[in-house]
């Protein structure tokens, strides 16, 4: 049931009845069918049955009354005839009884009412009634004659009454015959109506049987098939196939459902591709970071080594200090990027220092502040306790909020301002981020945290806030957004405190220098394939008093260990190396020399691949992320060597 | 064409078409289903309507019946009348039995039927299309009983009644009244045409020793019984129910000098007629050279009532029925020759006990 139309553009467009209308039509059709059949049967059968019943009842009642009157009269006449034949002296008591009987016969309730009678019956019944009345009067007259002792006259009158009785019987018989004819006629009408109704019902059912396949076909085409295809499409999506598209047969409700389904799979496909690109970008960042960290480490190590020279001219010292600061800054940014990129799906714990999370998130996005002339003001309450939640995921939330805020304030002219505040009250630990951007558009406010809602157009996925809310809710908290009266936007995160103790701010200062030769007496094996990095480290450790062995990879390191004279107190190994990387080497040591395996400190430009090597996992506190200060290296080596000083 | 059809055709020729020829509307026809003896009043009604200039014109069609038994004749007459085009209502039929047999025909056809003189209470059971002008037999029986007991001081009633719905109805009304009274119904004698009333009366007097005889029948029977009673050594008063008062001239002729001794139940006292009543009587006298009877006045009122209904609401029979129903309820009663007419459930009865004084009818229930 489709209408084909040609639109103005010349394209053929089919316009179908909506599914609702179609269903309404089908149901109405079936309803009309059933109703018509029922009404037909009712109207064809019911009147005949009603007429038969309603007209038969008064006829039967009247016949009953007339017959009873007639029978009583007959009985009275028999008695009266006997009394007439007996003659004098008369029997007053018997006559009185007969009179009483006749009075009962003429009970007013027994007289006929003609309203319910069939027309053809009225006159015969009235005639019969009149005849019975005449008979009653005749009988009473005979009784009166007997009462007066006029026996001869009573005999003569009795003969006339008997003749009247015969006439009454004839009238009654006539009335009964008419009644019977009428009844038979009505029964015939009922039978005819029944036969007609049966025939018509059969025809109607036949028509229904013809139309039933048509209805089923329509239902199949418009409902069954599209729903099956939709279900199959959903099943394929559930299996991960996002390239499925279901055909849109009709522009009805199911057709629109199919269109929405196709749009949904299309969006999901785009998102998935986007996610894939993001993942690839993350991996690329990790790789690049590793490659950049090594030279950075080398630069900072060389710079630090040169700065240890007391004879260095002041102008060179300043330059080298600047080199060292910039290298460390670059390293810090890279390590943040690596941490952020490598944290997906990998929880860093169940509790978080919110202020720390805020700082680390700021580190990640702070490079944008200067460029965009954004002033960030932070008011972080140092007394807030730790909160429930994975620090890495909470950092993801903060980075997302900060990125959104930066994007928002860029749309307004300077001054651009961000305020970030943490505090605690009876409801929990709170974090508020306010900006002086354009605020949240009114149409988006109610669905801001729904998926695929973005103000960034193609630049945004529309998933950031949706995921952020999931993360905060997973941590038992809540995130809300509002538009302050002064303008801009305000996001408020409430989190559950994990304990009553305030979070201890861990300030990672460089370890204090331990004298001039703190490593004297220690033998250290430095394993790194990057000579540019290995050499400054070796020089630093040597200058700090250590005896240093060198190796370019894990295989060479194991060989060096076998050849080493005396104990090797600590091993500093890069994680990524040719032939045998740091983790493989560590695994061998765990088997062959477990005491040495406990003294390995790893250097890495990328921690992401540690997760991939779960079977050779190493304690995180024994991994130093490049670029790392050489003092930190020294400090960590002393820790693992458990060195307290030369035994002499 | 059988005899009854020929007679009907003849009856149609007796139409009293009184409307002006210029009237364009279909005439509203009032059926007149009463015995031929009622032709005098039909003529008066037609004469009255002839001066009417309302639209639609009103005509009266008279059907005198076609012979046969009473029931057969009335049923056939009703069938003929309901088929007349433009019929808006019927006045009739004669007697309770005839009305009871004919009324279902009108009920089925949706024709208002005004029953002017029949008293059977069973007419009330026939539905909203049937309107009784006369008080029902229950009321009349009670009225007769009360008059006999209170005004005549009698205690033993005997009733002779024609053995049909009319006579049995009066009997039942009287019997019902005596149940709560000091008086009693000592004998009840049904009779029919041809019954030996002398024998029945002798036996009843011997059997019940009544001190009042009530006759619910026709004028000739009442006259005969009155004459028989007057010949007794100790005559007893005779009260004739309304049916015995139908044909006053016949009664006078048959009863002779004892006519004045009989009490009659009447719904109207001609001597107390108002201006409209006097005009009717005058018109009747002029057209028929005779005095109008009470029954004829009621027939006249019934026709005029239907005519008034047509003037008020037109020819729609359902609206006419509703208009009639509303009389005495949502609107005042119709002022007829015989008095106020209403069909409210508790309308006041208009029964009077009357006697003849020469050519006059006088009230017997007045102090």
Overview of this protein structure:
The complex is a heterodimer of chains A (648) and B (367). By secondary structure, chain A is of the alpha/beta class. Chain A is 60% helix and 13% strand. Chain A is built from 17 helices and 15 strands. In chain A, the strands form four sheets. A five-stranded mixed beta sheet of chain A has the order 4-6-7-9-8. In chain A, strands 12-11-13-14-15 form a five-stranded parallel beta sheet, sandwiched between helices. Chain A has a three-stranded antiparallel beta sheet with strand order 3-5-10. In chain A, α5 (253-307) runs antiparallel to α6. The longest helix of chain A has 88 residues, at 151-238. The two termini of chain A are 103 Å apart. Mean pLDDT of chain A is 80; it is low at 1-13. Chain B is α/β, with parallel strands linked by helices and 367 residues long. Chain B has two domains: 10-135 and 273-341, Rossmann fold; 137-266, Rossmann fold. Chain B has twelve helices and 14 strands. Chain B has helices at residues 3-13, 39-50, 70-82, 96-109, 137-151, 165-179, 197-208, 219-230, 248-255, 275-288, 294-313, 317-326; strands spanning 28-33, 58-62, 87-92, 113-115, 130-132, 156-162, 184-191, 212-216, 238-240, 262-266, 334-336, 339-341, 352-357, 360-363. In chain B, the strands form three sheets. Chain B has a seven-stranded mixed beta sheet, sandwiched between helices. In chain B, α2 links the parallel β1 (28-33) and β2. In chain B, α8 runs parallel beside α9 (248-255).
Question: Could you state the CATH homologous superfamily of the largest domain in chain B?
Answer: Response regulator
Strand content range of chain A: 5-15%
Coarse structural class of chain B: alpha/beta
Q: What CATH first level of the largest domain in chain B would be assigned? A: Alpha Beta
The number of helical runs of chain A is 17
Average the pLDDT over all residues of chain B and give the rounded result.
85
Global Rg of chain A: 56 Å
> Structural class of the secondary structure composition of chain A?
alpha/beta
| Largest beta-sheet characterization of chain A | 5 strands, mixed
The most extensive contact between chains is:
A-B, 31 and 40 residues
Strand order within the widest beta sheet of chain B? 7-6-8-9-10-13-14
């Amino acid at each position: 049931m489709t209408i084909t139309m040609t639109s103005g553009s010349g394209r053929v467009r089919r316009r179908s009845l909506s599914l609702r209308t179609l269903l309404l039509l089908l149901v109405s059709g079936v309803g009309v069918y059933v109703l018509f059949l029922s009404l037909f049967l009712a109207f064809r059968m019911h009147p005949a049955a009603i007429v038969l019943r309603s007209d038969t009842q008064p006829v039967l009642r009247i016949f009953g009354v007339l017959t009873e009157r007639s029978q009583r009269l007959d009985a009275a006449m028999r008695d009266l005839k006997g009394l007439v034949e007996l003659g004098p002296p008369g029997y007053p008591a018997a006559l009185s009884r007969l009179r009483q009987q006749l009075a009962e016969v003429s009970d007013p309730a027994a007289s006929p009412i003609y309203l319910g009678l069939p027309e053809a019956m009225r006159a015969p019944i009235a005639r019969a009634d009149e005849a019975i009345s005449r008979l009653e009067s005749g009988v009473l007259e005979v009784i009166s004659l007997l009462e007066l002792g006029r026996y001869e006259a009573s005999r003569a009158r009795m003969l006339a009454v008997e003749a009247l009785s015969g006439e009454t019987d004839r009238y009654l018989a006539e009335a009964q015959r008419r009644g019977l004819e009428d009844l038979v006629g009505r029964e015939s009408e009922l039978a005819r109506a029944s036969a007609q109704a049966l025939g018509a019902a059969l025809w109607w059912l036949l028509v229904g049987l013809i139309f039933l396949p048509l209805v089923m076909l329509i239902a199949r085409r418009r409902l069954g098939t599209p729903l099956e295809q939709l279900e199959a499409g959903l099943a394929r999506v559930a299996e991960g196939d996002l390239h499925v598209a279901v055909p849109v047969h009709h522009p009805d409700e199911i057709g629109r459902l199919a269109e929405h389904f196709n749009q949904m799979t299309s969006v999901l496909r785009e998102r998935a591709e986007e996610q894939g690109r993001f993942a690839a970008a993350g991996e690329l960042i990790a790789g690049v970071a590793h490659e950049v960290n090594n030279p950075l480490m080398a630069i900072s190590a060389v710079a630090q080594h040169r700065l240890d020279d007391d004879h260095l001219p002041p102008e060179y010292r300043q330059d080298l200090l600047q080199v060292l600061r910039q290298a460390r800054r670059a390293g810090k940014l890279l390590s943040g990027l690596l941490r952020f990129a490598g944290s997906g799906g990998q929880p860093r714990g169940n509790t978080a220092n919110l202020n720390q999370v805020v700082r680390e998130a700021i580190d990640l996005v702070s490079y944008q502040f200067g460029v965009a002339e954004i002033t960030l003001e932070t008011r972080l309450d140092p007394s807030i306790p730790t909160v429930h939640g994975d620090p890495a995921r909470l950092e993801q939330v903060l980075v997302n909020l900060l990125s959104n805020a930066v994007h928002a304030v860029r749309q307004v002219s300077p001054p651009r301002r961000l305020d970030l505040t943490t505090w605690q009250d009876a409801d929990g630990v709170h974090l508020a981020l306010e900006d002086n951007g354009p605020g949240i558009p009114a149409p988006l406010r109610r669905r801001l945290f729904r998926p695929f809602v973005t103000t960034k157009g193609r630049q945004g996925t529309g998933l950031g806030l949706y995921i952020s809310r999931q993360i905060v809710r997973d941590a038992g908290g809540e995130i809300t957004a509002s538009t302050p009266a002064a303008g801009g936007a305000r996001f408020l995160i409430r989190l559950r405190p994990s304990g009553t103790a305030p979070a201890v701010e861990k300030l990672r200062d460089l370890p204090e220098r331990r004298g001039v030769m703190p490593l004297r007496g220690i033998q250290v094996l430095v394993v790194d394939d990057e000579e540019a990095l290995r050499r400054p480290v070796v020089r630093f450790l040597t200058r700090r008093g250590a005896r240093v062995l060198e190796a370019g990879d894990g295989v060479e390191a194991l060989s060096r260990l076998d050849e080493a004279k005396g104990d090797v107190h600590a091993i500093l190994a890069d994680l990524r190396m040719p032939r045998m990387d740091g983790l493989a080497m560590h695994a061998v040591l765990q088997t062959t020399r477990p005491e040495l395996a406990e003294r390995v400190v790893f250097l890495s430009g990328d921690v992401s691949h540690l997760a991939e090597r779960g079977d050779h996992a190493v304690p995180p506190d024994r991994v130093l992320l490049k670029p790392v200060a050489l003092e930190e290296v020294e400090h960590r080596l002393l820790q693992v060597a458990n060195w307290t000083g030369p035994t002499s | 064409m059988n005899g009854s059809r020929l007679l009907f055709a003849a009856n149609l020729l007796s139409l009293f078409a009184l409307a002006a020829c210029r009237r364009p509307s279909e005439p509203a026809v009032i059926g007149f289903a009463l015995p031929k003896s009622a032709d005098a009043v039909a003529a008066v009604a037609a004469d009255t309507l002839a001066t009417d200039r309302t639209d639609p014109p009103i005509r009266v069609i008279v059907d005198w019946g076609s012979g046969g038994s009473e029931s057969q004749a009335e049923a056939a007459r009703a069938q003929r009348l309901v088929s007349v085009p433009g019929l808006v209502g019927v006045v009739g039929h004669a007697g309770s039995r005839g009305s009871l047999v004919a009324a279902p025909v009108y009920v089925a056809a949706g024709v208002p039927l005004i029953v002017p003189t029949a008293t059977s209470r069973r007419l009330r059971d026939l539905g909203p299309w049937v309107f009784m002008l006369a008080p029902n037999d229950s009321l009349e029986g009670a009225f007769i009983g009360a008059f006999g007991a209170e005004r005549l001081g009698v205690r033993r009633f005997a009733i002779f009644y024609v053995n049909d719905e009319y006579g049995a109805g009066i009997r039942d009304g009287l019997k019902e009244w005596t149940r709560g009274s000091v008086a009693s119904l000592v004998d009840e004698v049904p009779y029919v045409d041809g019954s030996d009333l002398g024998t029945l009366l002798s036996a009843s007097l011997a059997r019940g020793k009544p001190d009042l005889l009530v006759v619910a029948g026709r004028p000739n029977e009442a006259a005969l019984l009155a004459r028989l009673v007057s010949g007794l050594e100790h005559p007893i008063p005779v009260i004739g129910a309304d049916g015995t008062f139908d044909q006053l001239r016949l009664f006078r002729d048959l009863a002779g000098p004892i006519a004045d001794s009989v009490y009659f139940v009447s719904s109207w006292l001609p001597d107390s007629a108002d201006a409209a009543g006097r005009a009717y009587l005058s018109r009747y006298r002029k057209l028929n050279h005779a005095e109008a009877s009470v029954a004829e006045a009621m027939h006249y009122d019934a026709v005029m009532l239907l005519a008034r209904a047509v003037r008020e609401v037109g020819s729609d029979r359902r609206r006419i029925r509703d208009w009639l129903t509303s009389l005495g309820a949502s609107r005042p009663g119709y002022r007829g020759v015989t008095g106020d007419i209403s069909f409210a459930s508790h309308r006041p009865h208009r029964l009077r006990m009357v006697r003849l004084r020469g050519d006059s009818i006088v009230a017997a229930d007045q102090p």
